[in-house]
Amino acid sequence: MTKPFVAAVLAAAALLSCAKTQDASGSAAKAQATTNVTATDGRLSIWLTADDRLTPFEGRANLQVWNVRLHFKNASTAPLRILVPDDRNRGPTSSLYLRSSDSNFGGSVPEWPRHGPMYTEQDFYLLAPGEERSFAQPVFPSPRLPSGKTFDVTWRYEVTMNAFPGGIGTLQPSHELFGGKPLPDLWNGKLETKPLALQMP
């Protein structure tokens, strides 16, 4: 991984931490969406969609972004809870891995929290059987990418805990969630999508 690209990823993460995520609407709705193959374990299905062109981020013409969406579907016959933190805390639970077609650069979005993720009860979503839900995840292009260059985006989603008793010692100790009791309907596992190709204009 090259230092300039790492700097670009960190800059993108900083922008995400201070700006509200834009839903794919307005001018973004005029772009054609592309998608990749669904990854599933029979209980949860996930896949990516993305605009096939750059669009202004929050209406700022000088700041272009790919509007990527993270899609979840309860593929089981019972209610299923998913954990999807806000943009600042998604890594490492939900991470997009970027790799150029010539392997000259790579990185991940968003930046992983330096002192661990801080979850809230609002980060958990209960899906009925067959229900789908999606979340926006802006991807800022690397300034090193020349026109016409293609890179692949792979999404990895992983949850390994089903109870959140709090008290984990970081600069900001984690809080107890749901009384610290196990969540039997919380999905646990690891899924990774096939790469989705995006091309610089």
Word description of this protein:
- It contains one helix and 13 strands.
- The protein is mainly beta.
- The protein has one domain: Sandwich (Immunoglobulin-like).
- Strands 1, 2, 3, 4, 5 and 10 form a six-stranded antiparallel sheet that branches. Strands 7, 8, 11, 12 and 13 form a five-stranded antiparallel sheet that branches.
- A hairpin with a 2-residue loop joins strand 4 and strand 5.
- The chain is globular.
- The two termini are 23 Å apart.
Layout of helices and strands, plus pairs?
Blueprint: H1 3-18, E1 33-35, E2 39-40, E3 44-51, E4 55-57, E5 60-74, E6 80-83, E7 94-100, E8 106-109, E9 124-127, E10 132-139, E11 150-159, E12 189-192, E13 196-199
Antiparallel strand pairs: 1-3, 2-3, 3-5, 4-5, 5-10, 6-9, 7-8, 7-11, 11-12, 11-13
Defining traits:
six-stranded antiparallel sheet; Immunoglobulin-like; disordered N terminus; signal; Lipoprotein; 1 helix; five-stranded antiparallel sheet; 201 residues; single chain; mainly beta
Beta strand count = 13
Count of the domains:
1
Q: What's the mean pLDDT score? A: 77
Here the CATH topology equals Immunoglobulin-like
Rg, Cα atoms, Å: 17 Å
This entry's quaternary arrangement is: single chain
Percentage of residues in helical conformation? under 10%
Highest CATH level, the class: Mainly Beta
Low-confidence stretches at least 5 residues in length (pLDDT < 50)? 1-30
CATH architecture title:
Sandwich
Instruction: Indicate the proportion of strand residues.
Output: 35-45%
